[in-house]
Design brief:
This protein is α/β, with parallel strands linked by helices. The chain has 2 domains: 217 residues, FAD/NAD(P)-binding domain, CATH 3.50.50; 109 residues, FAD/NAD(P)-binding domain (3-Layer(bba) Sandwich). Helices cover 26% and strands 24% of the residues. The strands form 5 sheets. Strands 1, 2, 5, 6, 7, 8 and 19 form a 7-stranded mixed beta sheet that branches. The radius of gyration is 21 Å and the shape is elongated. The relative contact order is 0.20. It binds flavin-adenine dinucleotide (FAD). Flavin-adenine dinucleotide binds next to helix 1, helix 2 and helix 7.
Length: 343
């Protein structure tokens, strides 16, 4: 029986393992289950290679409350930081093992959990679900014609073309970064955003696209709403806006964020109020000993890597006080051990 099974080896799952180890939970009492072939799959697969990973993503303060922290840095160093962190815990990680079901049962008056994966069954006293929200990117409300499947994307890493006319849809940091990346690799880029002043972007991302606009390098279609997308005679997406004439593109990249995997959580018995799972300030659900961590616990405004690190700190505080009787270190452990970036 494990003390803690962590589902998902992203920034939240990794930092929770780090926090648990720092609080004295033995490494053999913790297990991490990750469905991808490597940890931090969202960073690995969705971030463009040259991206600057910002600590104040989505305007969140890059202030850390727990053991793990990060400054602004590139994608490779971010992955190295997380790689060192997960290795330093000594905790066993099972890769390519997707969790399909979690059931709770009572033993000696306490909640216990049975976790079913693609490869086996595990029992644990506590479970933290840290599977993020990017397994299900947010889709537009209108239908995308099937014929456009190869020309409509939810990330910029799944195609490797040049010199195309591409529409990015969205108004947050990811939308801005996708515009910058696609422009940099040689595309003609337009951005469609419902709002006027890009208030959801951090100052760097906002300034960067405004500068590109001033230089005539990208086109920002402010206050535009897309009604539908159809297929041109050449098989390209034709975007019909409410406010301006239809435009034909080579590709569309939707940058609308992710969505909570509601069905997965509801089947486990987690209740929701409107679209948000019911959790307390430490991420604990109504099922005692079952926690949501990272992006999953951060509500509609979404999360960031640092906010995932901080969420893990709150979760370990509750785990230690309520169930594991461990001791969360009072002083922040020096950043250095986690910053040793092995090249
Ligand atoms: C394009 C893009 C750019 C971003 N840029 C930044 C940035 O610059 N700075 C920043 O701070 N944040 C950025 N973010 C946000 C940041 O990546 C997330 O907030 C962060 O990754 C959340 O961490 P998490 O551990 O909660 O979830 P995730 O990183 O989503 O990790 C979840 C993990 O769980 C695994 N998993 C999913 N389902 C299962 C299952 N059933 N069983 C087992 N494992 C499962 C996944 O494979 C994944 O490895 C960006 C996001 C995107 C998409």
């Amino acid at each position: 029986m494990y003390s803690l099974v962590i589902i998902g080896a992203g920034p939240a799952g990794i930092s929770l393992a780090v926090e648990a180890r720092a609080a004295g939970v033995p490494k053999e009492k913790i297990l991490i289950l990750e469905k991808a072939e490597a940890h931090s799959w969202v960073i690995r697969s969705l971030y463009p290679d040259k991206k600057l990973v910002t600590a104040n993503y989505k305007g969140q303060k890059g202030v850390c409350h727990g053991v793990m922290c990060m400054p602004d840095m590139d994608k490779a160093d971010t992955l190295n930081l997380l790689d060192n962190a997960i290795k330093n815990t000594g905790v066993e990680v099972h890769y390519q093992e997707e969790v399909s079901k979690i059931a709770s049962f009572h033993e000696n008056g306490k909640n216990r959990f049975e976790i079913e994966t693609s490869k086996g069954l595990y029992e644990s006293e506590n479970v933290a679900i840290a599977i993020g929200i990017f397994g299900r990117p947010r889709k537009p409300s209108y239908k995308i014609p099937k014929d456009l499947r190869k020309r409509v994307h939810f990330d910029v890493t799944s195609f490797d073309t040049r010199d195309e006319h591409i529409l990015v849809v969205g108004g947050g940091d990811t939308a801005s970064e996708n515009v910058q990346f696609l422009h940099e690799v040689g595309h003609q880029v337009e951005l469609s955003y419902r709002g006027k002043d890009f208030h959801r972007m951090n100052p760097i991302n906002k300034q960067s696209i405004l500068l590109l606009e001033t230089q005539g390098e990208v086109t920002l279609l402010r206050e535009t709403n897309i009604e539908k997308v159809t297929v041109s005679d050449e098989g390209k997406p034709v975007v019909h806006f409410k406010e301006i004439e239809p435009r034909t593109y080579d590709r569309i990249v939707y940058s609308l964020g992710g969505t909570t995997p509601q069905n997965f959580l509801k089947v486990i018995g987690i209740t929701f109020t409107e679209d948000s799972p019911d959790i307390d300030e430490y991420g604990e659900t109504g099922i005692k000993g079952l926690f949501l961590c990272g992006d999953l616990s951060l509500g509609k405004k979404g999360g960031s890597i640092v906010s995932a690190f901080n969420a893990s700190r709150r979760t370990i505080e509750a785990l230690c006080a309520r169930y594991l009787h461990c001791a969360v270190p009072v002083h922040k452990i020096d950043l250095e051990p986690w910053m040793e970036v092995k090249k």
